[in-house]
Amino acid sequence: MLLNLLKAKIHRATVTDANVAYEGSITVDRQLLEASGIHVHEQVHVVDVDNGERFVTYVIEGEPGSGVLCVNGAAARLVSPGDRVIVIAYCHATAEEAKTHRPRVVFVDEENAIKDARNLRPGVIEVAERVDEMEVSV
Fold first, then answer.
1. Strands of the sheet with 69-72, listed across from one edge
2. Which of 1, 17, 105, 111 is placed for a possible disulfide with 70 were both Cys, Cβ 3.0 to 4.6 Å?
3. What architecture (CATH level 2) is domain 2-133?
4. What's the pTM?
5. Is 80 a catalytic residue?
C-alpha cells in the first residue's frame, strides 16, 4: 500500500498575477521551485489563504529571482493578485518510507523572496494492531 504524503510546499506566497487568457497552470519563480524540490510540470494543489479557494494544477517555470507566482487559465478566477497561497506537492511512499520521509517547506516574504527553507522532521507513528491497544487521551 502506498501513502500519499506531503512532498513539499511553498508557504504563504503572494500571487503576483492572475492570467485567465493563458492555457492553464501556475507559473512559479525557478528559485522557489529549486528550493522546494517541486518540478516543472508537477501536479500541485494551491490553497488560497485569503479566500479559502483550493484547486489542482501543474507548475511551469518562472524567471529566477523574479518572485513570480502567476495563476493561469480558469483557476485565475479563483485568486486575486496579492492573495497569499500555499503551493503543495505530494508524493507516494510505502509505510516504511513514510517513517523517514522529510517534507520540504519554503517560507517566503511578501515579495516571494525565500526567508527560510527546511525539511520537516519525519512523522513516525506506530500503528496499534488492535483498537484496544491504542492510547487515547481526553
1. 17-19, 69-72, 26-29, 54-62, 43-48, 84-94, 2-14, 104-108, 114-119
2. 17
3. Beta Barrel (2.40)
4. 0.88
5. no
